[in-house]
Amino acid sequence: MKAVVYHGPRNVSVDEVPDAKIEKPTDALVRITATNICGSDLHMYEGRTDFEEGRVFGHENVGEVIGVGDAVDKIKVGDMISAPFNVACGHCRNCEEGLTNYCLRANEPGIAGAAYGFADMGPWQGGQAELLRVPWADFNSLRLPEDASEKQDDYMVVDRHPDRLRLVEQIGAIGVDDSKGSPVDQVMEHTNGMGADRGAECVGYQAHDPQGHEDNSATLNDLVSSVRFTGGIGTVGVYVPQDPGGPNELAKHGKAPFDFGSFWFKGQHMGTGQCPVKHYNRYLRSLIAEDKVKPSWIVSHDLPLDQAAEAYKHFDAREEGWTKVVLHPGQAA
Fold first, then answer.
1. pLDDT per position as a tens digit, 33-75
2. Which of 18, 151, 251, 304 gives the lowest tally of CB atoms within 10 Å of its CB?
3. What is the distance between the alpha carbons of residues 136 and 299, in angstroms, rounded to a whole number?
């Protein structure tokens, strides 16, 4: 099968690799129809993790089930499914408590949590490929589609790229351009000095200012300053225990100069770690199926898998108009 293979920093190619296959009775084999290049993939693409050369990227995957193991009961051949990026067994203590993002069985002993095609997240190959093996398929596969409810709020999005800020405005959110002034000041102005109810750190450990200076604490500390007293912060961006390419000794050891004093004084709380996708994906699927939300507004390029290497270069360079890339293994060039 064809797959996006990592060969070292900023070096990927679409290669012929052994076909994914059913290896255990609980597996399903999926023909990938769409797989996203995520911002988190860029940490690995740029060589800022210990992702092994020769492995396949891709942790956000949709496709058609073309084979199931003998122990798979719920998922059938022909089903269209979404696979959460978490790989989880469904039966360990953490999974039974809903913490599928920290499955105790899907990674090597002593490490909780696993994902497809991601550094330190177990042996699972990614889905930027024509085929994907989905383990514990009855648990890990979300069949499309079903029901849920919706909630609307006002949102602000901090960015500095004009194409992304235009998209923010197109969906009715407020764009905050941090290249034109302090994002904290702008958020406080929009909220009459109160601060946002909630804030999401969506950048991760390679955060940097508009001048290009890297600071892994910059976004976190801006959120502490711009989220209200007793508000919440979610760290969606990836942070790692070691970053050999970090700009200073703290960063190299996965540490950040976090403003804990203000965080504590304001009574804020923070959620961190892998997202427990199964906690949300059924409801999100339903919103999409009922046409209440349309996340595809962010997609700028639908490309065949063969163009993955070029797509990574454009996306990594944050070129104008390259806001989100979806790869389609079955699409002709």
1. 999 999 999 999 999 999 999 999 999 999 999 999 999 999 9
2. 151
3. 30
